[in-house]
Amino acid sequence: MGKTVFITGASGFIGSNLAKRILTTEPDTKVIGLDNMNDYYDVRIKEARLAELQKFENYTFIKGNLADKALINSIFEQYHPDIVVNLGAQAGVRYSITNPDAYIESNMIGFYNILEACHHYPVEHLVYASSSSVYGSNKKVPYSTDDKVDNPVSLYAATKKSNELMAHAYSKLYNIPSTGLRFFTVYGPAGRPDMAYFGFTNKLVNGETIKIFNYGNCKRDFTYVDDIVEGVVRVMAKAPEKKNGEDGLPIPPYAVYNIGNSNPENLLDFVQILSEELVRAGVLPADYDFEAHKELVPMQPGDVPVTFADTEPLERDFGFKPHTPLREGLRKFAQWYKEFYME
């Protein structure tokens, strides 16, 4: 590409994988990464991701906060990014119930700062993370980006829907090409410890009981991180077209896509596959008694019973559909876990 890409949340799970992919496959592209390196989860994982990226000459890392408007403006002024990928956000549904301030600061004020900077320092394309959480408890599946999503069941979901609305307004007002990506349950090596597969693993290793919500009657569209990154890279390269309407004013160059595996897995099946792969990798002993460490419990606030992505528009516009089988992805996670924590 030979361009400058600014990635926020660059030491995060998706951000670090995206940065590494670009730096590896596009050696003449400069990547500027921003992350506040907060301790929402084990900072050693973020530090390990960052160390991987700092091996690349074309990578510049800035430690700082999305909500710091002066910092964001100074980055745009100094580096003039061509493409901005906003992945920096406070993630997690449950944490939004106990610490709502973090979500307003990062997801609302932080995203507003990015939009303002894209307005004052024009960019070719703003790509930003939304979430499957915006669908709330929609009964219709699979979830389509044409569905009405006005009933969030968590503050986290509300902030992500707000991001889509704010991006639309800026696309309309200032002709900024923007694409929102609704990610579906992303997993893989060096992922987020607050995600179920990682939390389950930690508990099982420590001999604790894992809670399976809604008595196991949950389905999740688990999407392997490499599939997410492939989707983001393709979207980055193809911004929505700028054009004017009959009134002579810009039609917003704005789009939203789902990126999911489009194949929801039952939580009990998922736990079974995870346990088999943890044994295979040597994280757990072959005679581990899983039944003794499982507890079926009711649904919890902010959660939804099913997530299921309609990815037809992504296939149509970018020729790509996530495809990594759950077992393959969990095998890679189990191998990484063994190396990172046990060797």
Automatic annotation (TrEMBL):
Top-rank lineage group of the source organism: Bacteria
InterPro entries to which the protein is assigned, alphabetical: Epimerase_deHydtase, NAD(P)-bd_dom_sf
Keyword NAD carried by entry: yes
Pfam family, one: Epimerase
Cytoplasm listed as a keyword: no
Keywords: NAD
Residues annotated as domain NAD-dependent epimerase/dehydratase: 5-259
Signal peptide limits: none
PANTHER family: EPIMERASE-RELATED (PTHR43574)
Protein name: Nucleoside-diphosphate-sugar epimerases
Lineage of producing organism: Bacteria, Bacillati, Bacillota, Clostridia, Eubacteriales
